[in-house]
Design a protein that fits this description.
- The chain is an alpha+beta fold.
- The chain has one domain.
- It contains four helices and six strands.
- A hairpin with a 2-residue loop joins strand 2 and strand 3.
- Helix 1 crosses helix 3 and helix 2 packs antiparallel against helix 4.
- The longest helix is centred in the first third of the chain and has 37 residues.
- The mean pLDDT is about 90.
């Protein structure tokens, strides 16, 4: 019985890390999807801060997926060419995607017996996506993970600062 608890704890940790990576990918895909729909620009999506990454392109979307710094992501396009309204929709796309996944995972927990193997994995994915949602909405500045001294804005802070400069 004790081994089952230990193994479920290890499953939770592994699923949590996988959930963070997949959650950041879904979050950035939310930004990218809105940008693709609302603009005519090419969009670059990045997950991770590693220069050694997997690169693939589909139409106007180019994705760079790395493992190092997997808690970070960015969706890039030329913001100066778009209206404040479009910029705010693109900014909101990530948290909306994270909210949808978090709600979906939370509702799926009701379908399984608490502390069963699948429930533990789903709960870890839920926690990871909920964390991403909260951090993206909280109006804070993040130091750039590459140590360049640049400052990254959370989606919540970026949303309110767009158009005010």
């Amino acid at each position: 019985m004790e081994y089952a608890v230990l193994l479920k704890g290890l499953l939770f940790v592994a699923a949590l890390f996988d959930g963070i990576y997949l959650g950041v990918l879904v979050h950035e895909m939310g930004h990218a999807l809105v940008a693709l729909l609302a603009t005519r620009q090419s969009i670059a999506l990045q997950v991770g801060t590693d220069d050694r990454n997997v690169r693939f392109s589909v139409g106007r979307l180019t994705a760079f997926l790395g493992l190092a710094g997997f808690r970070y992501g960015a969706t890039q396009y030329d913001r100066s060419r778009e209206s404040v309204r479009v910029q705010r929709w693109v900014i909101a796309g990530g948290p909306i995607a994270s909210l949808c996944v978090t709600v979906g995972l939370g509702l799926s927990l009701w379908r399984f017996e608490p502390w069963s193997w699948i429930w533990v994995a789903l709960f870890a994915f839920f926690v990871a996506n909920f964390r991403i949602l909260i951090v993206s909405l909280w109006p804070i500045e993040h130091p750039s993970p590459d140590g360049s001294g640049a400052v990254w804005l959370s989606d919540g802070l970026d949303f309110w600062r767009v158009g005010r400069h």
